[in-house]
Amino acid sequence: xxxxxxxxxxxxxLFGDFIAVDHISFxxxxxxxxxxxxxxxxxxxxxxxxxxxxxxxxxxQATVLGYDAFRQTEEVRARAGYMSQKFALYDDLTVWExxxxxxxxxxxxxxxxxxATLARVGLTGYERENTGDLSAGWRQRLALSxxxxxxxKLLFLDEPTSGVDPNARRVFWDLIYDxxxxxxxxxxxxxxxxxxxxxxxxxxxxxGKLLAMDSPAKLKEETLSGPVWDLYATPLELxxxxxxxxxxVQRAGLAGNHLRVITDPRITATKLKRALKTAKIDVSSxxxxxxxxxxxxxxxxxx
Length: 303
Description:
This is ABC transporter ATP-binding protein. By secondary structure, this protein is an alpha/beta fold. It is built from 11 helices and 14 strands.
């Protein structure tokens, strides 16, 4: 069986007294698309920076593509691609000048290879465009091409779709899965819960801790012991207050114009409606909902 692409053991990073990453351990198999999910400040970027050898850990160890992430950093960086949150592009250069510059950094100077990389992300015909004039979606593609220019075996993408429109996000994920189909391992951080659903495995971070890591289906099955309900009622605030006192309700929270309720398996719609009627709440609809990773995150984060 191939060696895992990433192995971490008790990886920890402190900044003074602040614990940015707190004793995390996980493995990523080769060819997987792994999502690293969590709000801003949860430790996602710090994890990537340690795996790339850009930050020394306070404690713990990690291997990346079989190399020690902290003692063999050059070997890791030569084989891994990194797309940072703030796309590392030179706005005063053209698309071609950017890819040519970064290709040179990795020793890739063959024009056919550079053109093939641009074609891979749909940038053929944009070579002479000034980078500063590109839209966020096209800048995103250029940043990805730079991360791919040396054909890495492992790709780190840090919040790659932040600030781009939904259509650009969808196109980007299509590119990610094309790469995975060819054997590239992809480790992508995001705070978009819906994006994490695309991943084969998902790690959930909060306050520097890795709360869980598994497939989306397994996380839902193991974290949510009972059904999820979508409740439309008036007034919502009083309904939320009433549900907090109902035995068997694990969590209730606002979800736009309705409430999202997670209960024990024994709770029925009849019991919920009865409790709300007693509190003089007008229920317009109460239906079973499909569990999401947001439900999983909120359930884990409340502990």
